[in-house]
# Entry
Amino acid sequence: MFILCLLTSMAILGQDLLVSEMSASMVWHIIIQLQLPLVLTAILVGAGLSVSAATLQVTLHNPLADPGIIGISSGASLMAALVLLTLKLDHINYFYFLPLACFGGALLSTWLIYIVARRLRASTTAVILAGIAISTIAGAIMAWLYILADAQALRNLTFWLMGSLYQTDWWILAVAGPLIVGGIAYQLSQASALNWLYGGSTLAAAAGAEPARLVRNNLIVCALCVGAAVSVAGSIAFVGLLVPHFLRMVIGFDNRLLLPASALCGALVLLLVALFSELVSWMTLPVSMVTATIGGPLLLIALYKGQWRMS
# Structure
């Protein structure tokens, strides 16, 4: 898997080296300033979304607990839309403020979902319905923002909300990158404790964990990781939902194996999407368009075969 990631990265980085008439300095500029941030963005966002989804699915006891489906990404996207359309920030302040705004939106959405789910005894239906409600509210607010925004802002926001690996550079990676890496590292460190949650809060407490604190910390860290990922690449569908699910079918439910594998496979999926987008050179493909085109049919197949479970 690591070799596949490395080969994919080399293929993306090598696209512009084929243009022989370019000067060495131009090729170097393209690799360092354009292609390398693209590769790092794909790796960080893919790994962050997949690990966060795997953690949420165990924490909420819900196999559909993808950041996009339960509304976490919607909250982050709403805050990003407010920043993009209403605030006039200079280049540096924009890249510092956007990840913080996305984290705030993701954290608020996560908190609302958690409160509603607890009130309704944390049922699967409660989590899904709470996520749908939050996504609907966020979508309605963004629709009002669309009416008030100018044409150029609308174009930027529309493409950003559909997911893009091309809207980043070293400035935003310097801010969002450590947040994603730190979030992934924390979730990996909690893999053994997450295994205890499979048996419920009583079993986790008997094993020496503090279930309430564990759930709260996981939700906060997942919100931080997803918010940072959304600030870098926009809203990306299905990666977090499908990667952990198919990995559970292959390697089982042990989070000590599942979480690292989710990070690697999530990174690989977005690297392959980036490679495909590079090969389709006559147009720039939104990431969510590609992932939804592949992920939607795979989700239907998994549901039809009755393979979707959480135990």
Notes: Residues 163 and 234 are 4 Å apart (CA to CA).
